[in-house]
Amino acid sequence: MKPKKVPMRMCIGCRTMKPKRELVRLVRDAQDCIRVDFTGKLPGRGAYICRDVACVDKAIKIRAVAHALGQNLTAEQEKSIREALQADE
Questions:
Q1: What angle is formed at CA 82 by the lines to CA 81 and CA 86, rounded to 5 degrees?
Q2: Mind listing the pLDDT tens digit for each residue in 33-83?
Q3: Which H or E run contains 82?
Q4: DSSP state, 41?
Q5: d(CA 77, CA 62)
Q6: Sign of the CA dihedral 16, 19, 22, 23?
Q7: What CATH superfamily is the domain 8-88?
């Protein structure tokens, strides 16, 4: 049997390739709400990021999240993303 292929994704903060299961997906849905998708199955425009808060801060600082999702982040959305990832740890 062939070994099972592991899907790889690039983190928008640190720009490293990691297995999809190690990353968290950020989603912009049809109502332009940005949420953290731990299941990886919510519909909408998505981008992957490490679970590390420092990586999230870097991605927000260099505007990688805004570029990947096609929408500028408000301070409230930045705060909710950080809180969701800190609660997950």
A1: 120
A2: 999 999 999 999 999 999 998 999 999 999 999 999 999 999 999 999 999
A3: helix 75-88
A4: -
A5: 16
A6: positive
A7: YlxR-like (3.30.1230.10)
